Amino acid sequence: MQVDWAQALGFMAAALTTFSFVPQVVYCWKTRDTHSISLGMYACFCLGVLCWLIYGLMVKQWPVVAANAVTLVLASSILYLKLNQKKP
After folding, report:
1. Are 1 and 46 in contact (CB under 8 A)?
2. CA–CA dist 17, 26 (Å, integer)
3. What string of H, E and C letters represents the secondary structure of the chain?
4. Per its UniProt entry, which superkingdom is the organism in (predicted)?
5. Which end of the chain is more exposed for a tag (fewer CB within 10 A), N or C?
6. Position 87 pLDDT exceeds 80
7. Cα distance between residue 3 and residue 47, in whole Å
8. Per-residue model confidence as pLDDT tens digits over 42-85
9. CA atoms within 13 A on the CB side of 4
10. Are the beta carbons of 76 and 46 closer than 8 angstroms?
11. What is the distance in angstroms between the CA of the first residue and the CA of the last residue of the chain?
12. Where are the domains of the chain?
């Protein structure tokens, strides 16, 4: 069995960058505190991640698809909390 090192590196990069969102998501869901998070930044970020996901599907780049599918779920959950936060 031959290892595709480029694919392996892609999956490693995808895992590291994707799971870097987990602590922020956990914090936001536990505290419901999103006041210091920029709505514009997260909205643009989620749209960009969706575009990367679609791109990955179009060119069949599975590390791109996997990373952006998970990242979209994580970032969208923060965006959801931000949009539904109670005003102080």
Report:
1. no
2. 16
3. CCCCHHHHHHHHHHHHHHHCCHHHHHHHHHHCCCCCCCHHHHHHHHHHHHHHHHHHHHHCCHHHHHHHHHHHHHHHHHHHHHHCCCCC
4. Bacteria
5. N
6. no
7. 33
8. 999 999 999 999 999 999 988 889 899 999 999 999 999 999 98
9. 7
10. yes
11. 58
12. 5-83
Please state, in angstroms and rounded to a whole number, the distance separating the CA atoms of residues 27 and 54: 28
Structure-block tokens of residue 26? 């956990």
Distance CA(56)–CA(68), nearest Å, equals 8
pLDDT in tens, 24-47: 999 999 998 999 999 999 999 999
Per the CB < 8 A criterion, the answer to whether 29 and 77 are in contact is: yes
